[in-house]
Design goal:
The chain is of the alpha+beta class and 474 residues long. It has 17 helices and 16 strands. The strands form 4 sheets. The chain has an 8-stranded mixed sheet, with helices on both faces. The chain has a 3-stranded antiparallel sheet with strand order 1-15-16, with no helix packed on it.
């Protein structure tokens, strides 16, 4: 049997009508409308005396839909525009360019408020469907009602001349955005587009992104927060700022940040008794062999040092947790680690009651933010389409909205395994599905092919979107 036999009876012709591609993307567009997001964006971008042919909120929402569908440039809006029988009139590329160019700092603030209001409603729908906001998982348990905000920066490489593009710390050329993600839901809470030469631990940038992220969390969920940052982003100013957030009564804002292994920490490690090391928990909550890894708290050794309190300039509730493990082949070690034979990782936190074992295990899932960023880069954040920084800011804003829409689609409209699927999988199985448009009785009906393996899941997704109640408060 020849491998080319599949094409022996194949022919091509142009005939028929009402077949639409990317039919599943309509579910994402519907979701933006049904949650009140599109209407909120329209109000945020409305200007007195200016009545455009294409509503600016609709244009921004459609930009988010095209990005969620995998679009990378303005011309990808043709995915919607070329299928008017499904999506209706859609803005042209020049109109999209003008719409993004009109978004400045005042508009971004209004859009932020609109997104926060929509997110509050969406979270009420999530609790209605799941009973609660998903909990952040740590080893063999979860963090309950705690909302976890993870901060991290990432490089966006550019291959053409763009505003703010500069040499990066890795020797590449591009920009260096700082982002905040909600670990519970996977939503993009805040993004600050920065020059490629921006530092990893710039205090002002981290405070700006953190404050914006907290305002995106519905008010009733801000009482119990955990902020995680890796060692590159940790700073004294950020710790001080988070400490002040605990001032309002009834609010608990904890942090878990990477900590440098300096001379004082190395001296403290040298004073740890051998029997003080506790087991490190693996990803399933099982203790690892002490010959492979161990964890201990250094706070008392640092604060009760013979030469005085080594943490006197830091908040009084700061704790230092140290983890050590045998290095894997090829690991980059400091001279101290090479001599000692262990690789050390330190974490600072203000959580008062938990054990060092749990605190170390709680910080390790901060690595999940890398998955958020990777998926974000697959959803518009990995390619900046303009040379203008203002338009790229607006594009990144649309990309974060797209990331939210995909999260909401998973949480409100999908079941396992698609409820945990990454963007690429969602696009192939649902969003890019072709269907036939059937008209009758003054209605339109999308007919999904029975042969498509995920036809039932796509139908259920549409039905779930249609069933969402309208947001009365909007």
């Amino acid at each position: 049997m020849h491998g080319s036999g599949w094409s022996k009876d194949l022919a091509v012709e142009i005939a028929g009508h009402d077949v639409v591609n990317h039919a599943g993307a309509a579910a994402v567009r519907l979701l933006a409308d049904r949650t009140g997001l599109t209407a909120g964006l329209s109000r945020a971008l409305a200007r007195r005396g200016f009545l455009p042919v294409h509503d600016r909120g609709r244009v921004l929402a459609d930009t988010a839909v095209l990005i969620a569908d995998g679009g990378r440039v303005f011309s990808d809006l043709a995915m919607l525009r070329d299928q008017t029988e499904l999506f209706g009139p859609v803005a042209s590329d020049p109109t999209l360019w003008r719409a993004l160019d009109e978004i400045g700092e005042p508009q971004r603030r209004k859009i932020s408020r609109a997104r926060a209001k929509t997110r509050e409603y969406v979270w009420s729908l999530i609790t209605g469907r799941h009973g609660r906001i998903p909990s952040s998982r740590v080893a063999d348990r979860d963090l309950g009602k705690t909302i976890v905000i993870r901060l991290d920066a990432s490089l966006v490489i550019t291959h053409s001349d763009k505003e703010w593009a500069a040499g990066t710390y890795k020797g590449t050329w591009g920009l260096h955005p700082l982002m905040a993600w909600c670990d519970n839901t996977g939503e993009s809470l805040a993004l600050l587009l920065r020059k490629g030469s921006a530092g990893s631990n710039t205090v002002a940038d981290h405070i700006e992104v953190l404050d914006e992220a907290i305002t995106q969390i519905p008010a009733r969920y801000r009482r119990d927060l955990l902020i995680t940052v890796d060692g590159a982003g940790a700073s004294h100013g950020l710790v001080d700022h988070i400490t002040t957030l605990n001032s309002p009564p009834g609010r608990r804002v904890h942090y878990s940040i990477g900590w440098d292994l300096g001379a004082r920490e190395r001296a403290a490690i040298g004073r740890v008794p051998k029997n003080a090391w506790d087991h490190v928990l693996d990803g399933d909550g099982r203790p690892r062999d002490l010959a492979e890894a161990g964890v201990v708290e250094l706070t008392a050794l640092l604060r009760e040092h013979p030469d005085g309190n080594q943490l006197a300039n830091w908040p009084h509730d700061l704790r230092i947790v140290c983890r050590r493990e045998k290095p894997h082949p090829g690991a980059q070690l400091s001279l101290f680690e090479q001599i000692d034979g262990w690789r050390y990782q330190l974490t600072a936190t203000n959580t008062p009651t938990s054990t060092a074992q749990f605190l170390e295990a709680r910080h390790r899932p901060h690595a999940r933010v890398e998955d958020n960023i990777r998926c974000g880069k697959q959803t518009g954040l990995g390619h900046l389409p303009s040379a203008s920084i203002e338009i790229n800011r607006a594009w990144c804003l649309a990309a974060t909205i797209a990331a939210d829409l995909l999260c909401w689609l998973r949480l409100l409209c999908l079941d396992e395994p698609l409820a945990k699927a990454e963007p690429k999988t969602l696009r192939y199985r649902l969003l890019h599905t072709a269907a036939r448009m059937i008209r009758g009785q003054r209605r339109r009906k999308l007919r999904i092919p029975e042969t498509w393996p995920w036809a039932e899941q796509l139908r259920a997704c549409f039905l779930a979107v249609f069933a969402l109640p309208p947001p009365t408060s909007h």
